[in-house]
Amino acid sequence: MDLKQLEYIVAIEQYGNVTEAASRLFVTPSALNQQLLKLEKELNLLLFTRGRRQMIPTKAGRIYLDTAKQMLNMRQITYAQLQDLSGHLVGTYQIGLSFEHGSDMFARIYPSFNKIYPGVQMRCVQLLVPDMLERLESRQLDIAFILTGDCTKLQSVEYIPLSEENLLLGLPVNHPVVKSLYGDNPPPYPTCTFDLNLVRSDDFAFALSRSTMRRDLIDPIFQKAGIAPNIIIESSFNNFLEQLASQGICNAIIPQSRIRNFKDIAWFYLPGHPRFQFGAAYQKNYRLNQAQQAFIQLAKEDAMRHMNFPPPEC
After folding, report:
1. Could you list the residue range(s) of the whole structural domain that residue 99 is in?
2. In this structure, is residue 314 part of a structural domain?
3. For 274-288, what is the mean pLDDT?
């Protein structure tokens, strides 16, 4: 069995059709289809039934795919073990980074990592968590640094928690509710849990609807309160959301570690005190080598310094 061919067939199953699989593998659909036809001719068996929109593995295809995945896993584990044994770690790894949390972490720790492992390269891409999980499953990423509001949902991957923090609601300091609570001197830190009914009719800026922050934490809070928030802007960039609140345009919800402006915004804990984790994820049965383990350890130390906040006491 040709290992590249195994990767091709696994990708066809993963994405359901040749066109999408070819796009993910950076080959032409024609070339990928020819590889499949060649293999089926060698085996004298069909590996997929061809539908109009989806290709479904046949019984023979299921047997082939199960073995292919085992062989690809064995290759990865073997190479990782041999690299550790040799002590000469080289190679290029594909790393997924969450917006802001992941990218800032990488920029802080990579110089130290590179001094220890100069032969190891990290190729990074910034993605939303659902996209990173998909790429982990299809072996396009080796490690992904993700944000999650409920790590128990990550059953398809191995997950190493690195830090945990609160989500906070930010209101412009000139907001009537802020004025009634604090007058002209709101505290430079969150002091209490906010009643969302007080801002039921306000405008809000949230994280993107596909993000885990929205799906796992923000949307459920408003649903539980029976509030349909008027969302005027969605963004992956917390500094942008914070700027909107500081200019009095709307209220914003962002992670505690991303807060920079305590002068123009009053910050509050949300009902239920939602917290989310930042962590490293990788495919099940994937063996981390020494360099990858060191990188994750550096990420954990950095996250504990910059992103770890205790739960609120109020």
Report:
1. 88-163+277-306
2. no
3. 92
